Amino acid sequence: MPSADEVRALVGKNLAHVQERIAQACHAAGRAPETVRLIGVSKYVGPDETAELVAAGCCDLGESRPQQLWDKAETLTERGCQVRWRMIGHLQRNKVARTVHYADAIDSVDSRRLLAAIDAAAQAIGKQQQVLLEVNISGDQEKHGFLPGEVGQVVSEMATTWPNVVLRGLMGMASLVGGEAAARQNFADLRQLREQIVSQTGVELPELSMGMSGDFEAAIAEGSTLVRIGSALWAGL
Ligand SMILES: *Cc1c(COP(=O)(O)O)cnc(C)c1O
Known about the structure:
By secondary structure, the chain is of the alpha/beta class. The protein has one domain: Alpha-Beta Barrel (TIM Barrel). Helix content is about 50%, strand content about 15%. The protein has helices spanning about 5-30, 45-55, 65-80, 95-100, 110-125, 150-160, 180-200, 215-220, 230-235; strands at about 35-40, 60-65, 85, 105-110, 130-135, 165-170, 205-210, 225-230. The protein has an eight-stranded parallel beta sheet. Helix 1 (about 5-30) crosses helix 2 (about 45-55), helix 4 packs across helix 5 and helix 6 (about 150-160) packs across helix 7.
């Protein structure tokens, strides 16, 4: 077990390294570095390590399990950390109300039934809940998400059907097989889908959440605005 000082030093060093890689990928893609936001995925570690990441300057965090998001949100708030939480994993409807209470954004919205539940929970507390629609871009059977062909219809229904939900964009995950070339193609597909839907519906979709530790450079090259990075931030712990 590393000491608290060692954790602090490691997390600070890992964060600086990831930020540097993001800046380089932006430079290579001819993009301004502030067009890409780092979401630190804290699912691998406890509240102590997570608090160190926030102290080091990463205040946008993602959790893939609702219970962990709620618990860490409570603990970090008690410790005075200012965090914007994003729910990035599969969300069941019985966990929506508490998640809406804590989450700045829910990025993994993958069904109309979930949208209806989020809308109701947001209305109940007088909130406008920001969301992304998760799209199954890789076609992997076990992945969640809307099929690319159904997203346009959902987007055009959003404003009238779920008025307490604010759609900010799309999220996708690359295929587990096929390596970097397949990942880059998946990301390009999501960007093109976004462009097509924006021109079809007139709805702005400013955010594209794509890219993780193993493939975020390719995602940035294809227009990602939110990279969800876990393991690279916790290396060596
Ligand atoms: C775990 C997770 C990540 C982070 O993955 P790493 O490869 O560890 O960077 C990103 N997105 C989602 C949805 C995750 O569940």
